[in-house]
Amino acid sequence: xxxxxxxxxxxxxxxxxxxxxxxxxxxxxxxxxxxxxxxxxxxxxxxxxxxxxxxxxxxxxxxxxxxxxxxxxxxxxxxxxxxxxxxxxxxxxxxxxxxxxxxxxxxxxxxxxxxxxxxxxxxxxxxxxxxxxxxxxxxxxxxxxxxxxxxxxxxxxxxxxxxxxxxxxxxxxxxxxxxxxxxxxxxxxxxxxxxxxxxxxxxxxxxxxxxxxxxxxxxxxxxxxxxxxxxxxxxxxxxxxxxxxxxxxxxxxxxxxxxxxxxxxxxxxxxxxxxxxxxxxxxxxxxxxxxxxxxxxxxxxxxxxxxxxxxxxxxxxxxxxxxxxxxxxxxxxxxxxxxxxxxxxxxxxxxxxxxxxxxxxxxxxxxxxxxxxxxxxxxxxxxxxxxxxxxxxxxxxxxxxxxxxxxxxxxxxxxxxxxxxxxxxxxxxxxxxxxxxxxxxxxxxxxxxxxxxxxxxxxxxxxxxxxxxxxxxxxxxxxxxxx
Length: 483
Ligand code: PNW
Prior knowledge:
There is one protein chain. The chain is an alpha/beta fold and 483 residues long. It has 18 helices and 13 strands. Helix 17 links the parallel strand 10 and strand 11. The radius of gyration is 23 Å and the shape is globular. The site of 4-nitrophenyl beta-D-glucopyranoside has 12 residues, from loops.
């Protein structure tokens, strides 16, 4: 992509000469041992894609009968998002989707993860469906398929219809979600073969109802938050059942969850065992009950009187078997075995020098992409895994030549993909990878201040410019290998 400058060429030439010299001076047997550099190939048919979400890219918030979601309300409330940014226009994907699908095709992507905006399909959350809202997804899906790209559809990526009374505090919302998901599955499953119920429990429960950082911006007490969490996983479980009941047979159902990921500080038996314990306990309100159909005892004991109120049948629905598990992975914690600690392990503290990407919460932990697959696979024996999101923000700028040299993103992605390759090589059933994200977009409370795309978006003109990371990804896909 970038033409070599004279200085860069000189550097490259010098490096080549140095390698040649080193090689020439090695004894023959050492050369034989080094051999040809092996290409880190992925299994044939491995699915490479990109991910997006409705409110972050679509815009067109008042078009074709869509009514507000809690994110419209929240982003229009003073002081809630960076600079008061909203998703009113975002990437205008609602109108520009054809152009963006050509970009995906050019990258060689065979999969695209998108989410359906609940309040386009049911503007009031329940009741009368809005055919014009569903039609957008019909057009989008048809366009993807016509270009050889398989749609992977998330039913809920946080844009809850504002009209739903009391949001996730109400148990009725779980039922309303199942009705909506069943309706969408019924109408799209002739062309969509993979559905995700919900995206990232902790973000639309804890961050939204406990910390108040995300819509609806509440700060509830522990018992109420645990109940919100319960309604969220119940929605997932009832959603799985409703999708299965309404979709064409053969439709696969899973979840997109940002489970807490734990990596052993040293790869010894005892530390690895510690990460396994941490994986179950550290995901006690969410992924663990989804996989086991029960809350871990340690969680119920710890929460005591604040534990969620569970009705008969809830846990069975929550533990509905899944066809695949999708994991959104951005960061992770190191864990060590510690016999003196009540749970038998400790999460390592991070020194202030620990490196992170432009978003301070994205502490760089490439091995996360290996352990995120290995531990849930070893513990729960899930049939298939997808990485449903992985990517990072960086302080992208367009240079004088009109290019974005996002070398930090390339570094981040390459290291993560290398670790995912390790999981594939060891035989873990990892089927595909969705890079977050195709485009810079509305990054929730951070508004447009954090860019996650491999295509740069000028939000004034809607011009897209593929970054260097897009060139890198195209090559990964072409060779089905780490490059
Ligand atoms: C995920 N955190 O969100 C979401 O699924 C995407 O919609 C989002 O754009 C992407 O990751 C990048 O942020 C998260 O603060 C947002 O810990 C924030 C956090 C985690 C996930």
